[in-house]
Amino acid sequence: MEIKCYACLKPGEKLSEWSYGIPSTPGANDVDVEITHCGICHSDVHQIDNAWGVASYPLVPGHEIVGTVVKVGSGVTSLSVGDTVGIGVQRGNCGQCEQCDMKREHTCPKITKTYAGPGKDKGGFADFIRYPADWVFKIPPKYSRSHAAPLLCAGITTYSPLKKWTPPGGQAVIGIIGVGGLGHVAIQIAKALAWRGKVVAISTSPAKKEECESLGATDFLVSKDSAQMASWASKFDVLLNTVSGIFDLDAYLALLKPDGVMSCVGLPEKDQKCGVFMQSFVLTERRIVGSYLGPKLDYEEMFVFCEKNNIKPMVEEFPSEQINEAIEKLRKNELRYRAVLEMPAAKKLKTNGV
Ligand code: NAP
Ligand code: ZN
């Protein structure tokens, strides 16, 4: 079976049409999904640029995938042909290590991913993908496919740490640093968790203020304005750092209360180090923690939470032929707020009136 896709052939290059072959029958535990939509995450751009030094080429990015199951392996019981499903970053885990035993499959040392892993797997900027059924999730009917797509990465990556670190009671003061694909979903999730607290969008882009407020932010803080930053010093219980580039870690840490937590999900380039003055967190016992994707159990929980709280990504749809234009807009920080590609199968759905 031939899979048509968009690939990056060399680091930093534009994507071009490409194809690769797979056996016609899926493995016993796999499903084949005809992709209708795929979000574009900044991680895709980092990988295109080989920013983390782990990409393998030809690289077929894309890990916010929504589509329709078209074939199921002989051992698959959880999914059927015709199901509308989603796929995120994680492709597999060993199932035998301490992390997997603790239901922390996302930190399994043998984690495999949608693409660019050791097996040189290919991702979702494609018309089909073959995937282990264990890591394929049903999409709740409430969501349109293009709005569901960003939840498969931006949703899970912000839901998991916000749920983990937000103090209970709804009164927390939460800051979301960086309002992009992840950040704009995070504002909505934070609002649902701190419904009578404060949710502060912390941004380098003053033009995003009104949209942030419409997403649920109670306040908007321009991070380049040192007077504004000083007025919010030591006020936050939780900061979620979604910044994709290099930043002044000390300036953001100053915003946390003593014992407050900055959960970092942004993953700038390998060569862009964010240095820290140790006094920015040692004397106050502020905490800097990492957060990666989320455990498998959180995916379904995240969808239920988002559905219940009317959380809806703001998307800009692009026909798949305009993939390079969409990536360029992401690079320029011009998207509001997530680009979602419509693959050829999406047109078929539209024609059929679905
Ligand atoms: P995005 O849409 O480009 O958003 C990133 C936002 O960060 C920008 O919109 C901008 O917001 C802000 N920003 C960019 N450069 C900055 C700088 N130098 N200083 C301060 N702010 C800056 O990216 P995304 O798709 O949300 O992804 C964000 C990061 O998370 C990426 O590094 C990605 O690789 C990473 N990621 C991690 C995980 C995980 O599991 N840990 C999962 C997915 C993605 P403002 O205009 O508001 O300032
Ligand atoms: Zn992502």
Summarize the structure.
The protein has 354 residues and is α/β, with parallel strands linked by helices. The protein is built from 11 helices and 17 strands.
What does this structure look like?
- This protein has 354 residues and is an alpha/beta fold.
- The two termini are 27 Å apart.
- The protein contains 11 helices and 17 strands.
- 25% of the residues lie in helices and 26% in strands.
- The strands form 4 sheets. Strands 3, 4, 5, 8, 9, 16 and 17 form a 7-stranded mixed sheet that branches.
- α4 runs parallel beside α5 and α4 packs across α9.
- NADP nicotinamide-adenine-dinucleotide phosphate (NAP) binds next to α1 and α5.
Main sheet characteristics: 7 strands, mixed
Our measurement of the CA-to-CA distance between the termini, rounded to an integer number of angstroms, reads: 27 Å
Radius of gyration: 20 Å
Low-pLDDT segments, ≥5 res:
none
- Attached small molecules: NADP nicotinamide-adenine-dinucleotide phosphate, zinc ion
